[in-house]
């Protein structure tokens, strides 16, 4: 009976955090998603559109992560390897830490200060994350030189489609 209760509880709580590939793999962003605000390390507000504009003309990998996310922390060495193997690619890290203090602690603790980091002060549920069907972290997206989505959904930096997408964009 006790085991049955545990299985029941796990199934209920597991429903909220499933890593299912979205049914529609989007190739562009909505206006609402582009207007989503984040904060940089200094607390200055910036929109997704402004971040994309800063990287226009380059291939960009977006890495969604948080310091509390065990899967994200396990993936960090492989994400760093992906970054090291692609020196001509830009990388942006979007944090889903639950507080500004948590964001700052995570940057320090996991040696992320040298990277380009932003934090969703609005929390997980916002126009951008809802639009990109963010249901799991870590999550990786590849953005092409014209700010279109080239690789919509990957949950591991070791997903071979990430590197294939990058290679195809650089041809």
UniProtKB/TrEMBL annotation:
PROSITE patterns according to UniProt: PROKAR_LIPOPROTEIN (PS51257), THIOREDOXIN_2 (PS51352)
Subcellular location: Cell envelope
Alphabetical keyword list: Cytochrome c-type biogenesis, Disulfide bond, Redox-active center
Keyword Transport: no
Domain Thioredoxin residue range list: 27-171
Keyword Disulfide bond: yes
Name of the protein: Thioredoxin family protein
Organism: Chryseobacterium oryctis
